[in-house]
Design goal:
The chain is an alpha+beta fold and 378 residues long. The chain folds into four domains: 4-136, 2-Layer Sandwich (N Utilization Substance Protein A, Chain:P, domain 4), CATH 3.30.1480; 145-204, OB fold (Dihydrolipoamide Acetyltransferase, E2P); 208-283, GMP Synthetase, Chain A, domain 3, CATH 3.30.300.20; 296-378, GMP Synthetase, Chain A, domain 3, CATH 3.30.300.20. It is 34% helix and 29% strand. It has helices at 4-15, 19-37, 83-87, 109-137, 209-219, 221-224, 254-259, 264-272, 287-294, 325-329, 334-343, 368-377; strands at residues 44-49, 54-64, 80-82, 98-103, 143-151, 157-161, 164-168, 184-195, 199-205, 228-236, 240-247, 277-282, 302-307, 313-320, 346-351, 356-358. α1 (4-15) crosses α2, α2 (19-37) packs antiparallel against α4 and α9 packs antiparallel against α11.
């Protein structure tokens, strides 16, 4: 096993791995091979011989008392020796000393060589997978691009991303999208998992709000360099989205920079999202004003914020003219849903004539009787 360290460096360079990790993988391979071809119950260590650039396999035997229970256990006995037996070889030996016996795997013929080759291949492959797993784990929420290699019967799309294949499930595709083999697509990494049978599994998404954020960062330099920050984002994929923006520079208009001249920037993002309409809103930490802006294009008369027991903003009661109600709700309720998602609050609409509509509730009847009673006592 001469110059195994040179082999480790070559593997590390070829696979893009750290040499130290490759050496540890090789040491594990040597130990597993020794257990396989010598004795599975022996306690082995792999030691580096820097002079010969080789790995030595050492059997470790621990010296224990003559009546130690581990000597009588078939599973543990090979790793221990009684002090009486040990002193027959060395009268200076003490309890807990470790005797070392070197084994040369080359003495075990082709069986050992074949086994060692398989073990090295296995452990290096696991190391490569671990590196890839950590690499893509750190990319969760980031934008990646790749080529479509297959679309299965359930319309799951398989995408080749650099050195690995990822999957874009049907549920994570924008409604109406159709992909064919050879298409190049963009998506964000949604989930990364490791399976013993199938290896690394990477799930992509084009419906996540993060996908919209990443596309905007790609298209808008001010967002990419941090001059404009996307504070919040809400989407109904393929239909409409709302983003709350804040400028970190007094001379930069967050909304104007994002939209671009004649809408060129926001339109480019919308085109990637199959025509999804994107509303850009200037963020403010004043909840009443922020809620009012999220209800655009409806014109709001008044906003009342209701807090829960923990002091958090839980509900927004919005008063608006009757002719603004349909704009506030939007087609199929899309505008009010997005506003609720963006603000994190339940939103209730109250018309100026005292009729109210709550999200998910039927319109309440006008309370003329109550108002009449109040008038009598005033």
């Amino acid at each position: 096993m001469e110059k195994i360290l040179d082999i480790a460096e070559a593997i590390a360079h070829e696979k893009g791995l750290q040499p130290k990790l490759v050496i540890e993988a090789l040491k594990t391979a040597f130990i597993q091979t020794a257990k396989r071809v010598i004795n599975n119950k022996f306690n082995f260590e792999a030691q580096i011989d820097q002079a010969t650039k080789s790995i030595k396999v050492i059997q470790i035997i621990t010296v224990v008392e003559d009546d130690d229970k581990r000597l009588k256990n078939e599973e543990t006995a090979p790793a221990y020796i009684s002090i009486s037996d040990a002193r027959e070889y060395d009268d200076q030996v003490e309890l807990d000393d470790q005797l070392q016996i070197e084994h040369n795997l080359e003495d075990y013929g082709r069986t050992a060589a074949a086994s060692l080759h398989r073990e090295i291949e296995y452990h290096v492959q696991r190391l490569v997978e671990d590196e890839l797993f950590n690499k893509y784990k750190s990319k969760i929420g980031n934008l990646v691009s790749g080529r479509v290699t297959r679309v299965d019967s359930q319309n799951n799309t398989y995408v080749e991303v650099d050195e690995i294949r990822a999957v874009l499930p049907m549920k994570s595709r924008i409604k109406g999208e159709i992909f064919r083999v050879g298409d190049h697509i963009k998506a964000v990494v949604r989930r990364v998992g490791m399976d013993k049978d199938n290896g690394i599994q990477i799930e992509l998404s084009r419906t996540s709000p993060k996908f919209l954020e990443e596309l905007l960062a790609l298209e808008v330099p001010e967002i990419a360099d941090g001059a404009v920050i996307i504070e919040k984002c809400a989407r109904i994929p393929g239909e409409r989205a709302k983003i709350a923006l804040i400028s970190m520079h007094p001379q930069i208009d967050a909304v104007g920079a994002t939209v671009g001249v004649k809408g060129v920037r926001i339109n480019a993002v919308s085109q990637e999202l199959i025509g999804e309409n994107i509303d850009c809103i200037e963020y403010t930490n004043i909840p009443e004003l922020f809620v009012s802006r999220t209800m655009s294009p409806a014109i709001i008369s008044h906003v009342q914020i209701i807090k829960n027991a923990a002091g958090e903003n839980e509900k927004a009661i919005i008063t608006l003219p009757s002719d603004q109600k349909s704009k506030a709700i939007g087609k199929s309720g899309i505008n009010i849903r997005l506003a609720s998602m963006l603000t994190g609050m339940n939103i209730e609409l109250v018309e100026n004539n005292a009729k109210t509509d709550a999200i998910g509730e039927e319109p309440q009847e006008q309370k003329d009787g109550v108002d009449a009673l109040k008038a009598l006592f005033n």
